[in-house]
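# step 3/5: fold
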Amino acid sequence: IWFTADDDVDYYELTEHDANGNETQNVEYDGAGVDDIWFTEDDAIDSAIFREYDVNGNHIKFVRSYGAGADGILFTNDDISYYHAFQFDANGYQTQNVRFNSIGADGIWFTEDDVTSSYQRFAFDANGNQTLSIEFTSAGADGLWVTADDIARSGYSINQYDENDQLIQAVFWASEGEGGAGSDGLWLTEDDVIDAYRIYQYNAERKLTLEQSYSGPGLDAQWFTNDDISSDYVENDYDASGNKLIETRFSSSGNVTGYDDYEIETDNLLFVSYASAGADNTWFTEDDIISGYEKKAYDDGRPLIEIGNSQNVVIQYNNSGADGLWFTDDDNRVGSISRYYKNQYDVNGNEIQSAYYSSTGSDGFWLTADDVVSYYFTYEYVDGFISSRSFFYGAGVDGIWFTADDFKSSETEYELCYTENCSN
């Protein structure tokens, strides 16, 4: 029976906070220690996180530790595995993130010779939109980190936004291997080499209508001119209420290469993707060939399915399975599942049931009717406040879950209090 004294502890975490409520320490314990009793001083530590903040509440340091270091003593300087140091601008936006992965020659952490493994830089406009993102992965010729000749191996990007804070252009600079730093060998200078850019357009309702990519500067050898080479683009159409109807993908020559149909009446089906025009060689007809589809596992922001720690889950399918038929149980789902919760709500949006599924049933497919239930909770409400919670751990004598004879382990009742001085 779950939630009783003999349940086996897997691990637990203890956290500490400063006077402002910021978490400063998180320690995870994964063993009961020599005394074999959990929640005592000799419990085994798996890992720990330490955080520091400046006077403005900005998170300026993140330290990661995995157990005791060489001295065998916990919470000493040699426990550290790596740490991050963050910098912020006057508006509280993070502008730099440096990762240090080992101590330097002095053998002491948090000194000037700590060894950097990489760092990131960011920039923001006056409204807080991120305009620059770049990661430096090695020191340059001078051998020193955070200097002008550091190397951004993967290039970088710069974004522009309109007056509504909508992204209107993203420019991508070439990687180190493609000569992205230009002839001077320095990043973030005027001769850096552009690899591609993308523009975005919106309608009067601020809905994205066009996303177009460009991969070359054209015959005039100048970027951002009319002859730039378009690699592909996407157009979106909406109804009068702003609901997306169709997303169409085009090649650089303007030919349709596929589309997503959002105009669907089936519950929880987000869209169906089509990748071929079918036998009639005409797009947007009944014989267009499906390449996949997505289903949403949420409704009005409430999670219907929770997989792992994800609540607003989108479930993707990219193959029709062995039966060759789409929208059947054997369709191939993208990603893995080891367990999930399925939730139900009343008309007021209150959660009334949450069931935990631990494995597939006899059909071998997840998210089908025969998935195996391990337990479930039910909830009741009075005036919108929870009044009772019940825990069920078995299907009862009839062997059928969610029936009147299910085995109940516990029931918790809540006394409602409508004053400011509630004791319960």
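# step 4/5: annotate
Residues 2 and 220 are 71 Å apart (CA to CA).
# step 5/5: archive (pending)
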